Amino acid sequence: MTILGVALLALCTLIGVFLGDLLGVLLNVKANVGGVGIAMMLLIAARVWLVRHNRLGHATKLGVEFWASMYIPIVVAMAAQQNVVAAVSGGPIVIIAAVGSVLLCFAATALLGRIGGRPAQDSADIEHAGAVIAGDAEAPSPVRPTTAMRR
Amino acid sequence: MLHMLEHVFVEQSLVAAFAVIGGLMLVSHVIGKRLTGGRVHGSAIAIVLGLVLAYCGGLATGGKRGLADIPALAGIGLMGGAMLRDFAIVATAFEVDVIEARRAGLLGVVALALGTVLPFLVGTLTAVAFGYHDAVSITTIGAGAITYIVGPVTGAALGADSTVMALSIATGVTKAVMVMVGTPLVARLIGLDNPRSAMAYGGLMGTVSGVAGGLAATDPKLVPYGALTATFHTGIGCLVGPSLLFLIVRALVG
Fold it and tell me: In angstroms, rounded to a whole number, what is the distance separating the alpha carbons of residues B180 and B186?
């Protein structure tokens, strides 16, 4: 049943966010500490368990992958409700602090990404994941590499 | 007639948002294919168009939530709000290559530490250069450079001035917008094309909305890896901002 996949996703998100809130209280922080990250790890663990016990049905998978494929449209909707006016009219101190930290972090990404050398060729699984998240996957089966658009 | 149409949009807000965003995505992909010959990713164009529309919406309504402040488009606020955004981010984890993610775990931790310290440093130095001398204001502006949530949380905890808080939030929002727009432009230059560098990138850039938008516009397969580290960023910033970082700044400026 498709709803089982959606429910699994919802359960992982709820537990993760709850644990993130709990961690925030324990650390005396007024914020959720890594709730979404914890939820992601729970979902990864659930997937591994389901695959190992051969319980990951096509429909269950569809329930999760539908939401993964809605990711980009949701991000576009998120972009459309940012307070861009405030960002543009922030003045020099805002621009300098933001530009400076973004450039510095891009440089650090380049540096860190090179540590340990470049990983081997992307596996078919990772390529398939890209196609699902891009909303281009034709069939939800990770066996064959998808030759979806992208450059 | 127009009034009735608006009524439908208001009543069916989320459904209307699906239709509007779908239309926006379609237009963006056509622009990407026809006008740039496929060089610019359709998603990147959609995100930039979204930001432009948010600017127009903000000017038109004077509100803080871009297009979502227009009553007929309020559904965009729900569709792109934190609840569905986090739900979709978690869903992308279903596609994560466990071995790859575990191998880059330590790298992610290093990136998170650097991603907190480096922007804070830039923010505090900028604040000092612009004539702020008290530890509370300097820390609040520095925290804003981490993310736009860390800024106000830190400022509120330290009792910062409201103008300083506004500056701090604006810095964070500007950073998020710059990450969304800038990532696809520099991706090749900084080697952002594999899960390992995506995890480093997520930890370093931090801002979940920035990372979510930046990776979506660059290469969708990297999304879960970047998001995995980025979601810890704000929590860590809120943890060290009003405590450790503030104490260091206070020790330095007296």
Answer: 11
| Residue B12 CB neighbour total at 10 angstroms | 13
* A137 located within any domain: no
Alpha helices in chain B (DSSP H): 2-11, 13-34, 42-61, 75-79, 82-92, 98-103, 105-129, 135-144, 150-158, 162-186, 195-205, 208-218, 223-240, 246-253
pLDDT above 90: residue B210? no
Residue A49 has pLDDT above 90, yes or no: yes
CA distance B72 to B253: 50
The verdict on a CB contact (< 8 Å) between B94 and A47 is: yes
Number of domains in chain A: 1
Query: If you count DSSP H runs as helices and E runs as strands, how many of each does chain A have, helices first?
Result: 7, 0
pTM: 0.80
Å from A123 to nearest chain B CA?
9
A150 assigned to some structural domain: no
For residue A48, tell me if it sits in a domain. yes
List of chain B residues whose C-beta atoms are within 8 Å of the C-beta of residue A31: 149-150, 153, 234-235, 238-239
**Interchain contact A124–B (C-beta under 8 A):** no
Q: Is residue A113 part of a domain?
A: no
Could you tell me if A69 and A132 are in contact, meaning their C-beta atoms sit under 8 angstroms apart? yes
Domain assignment of residue A54, given as a range: 1-69
A17 touching B (Cβ < 8 Å) = yes
B195 touches B222 (CB < 8 A) = yes
- For A97, which of B87, B110, B171 is closest by C-beta distance? B171
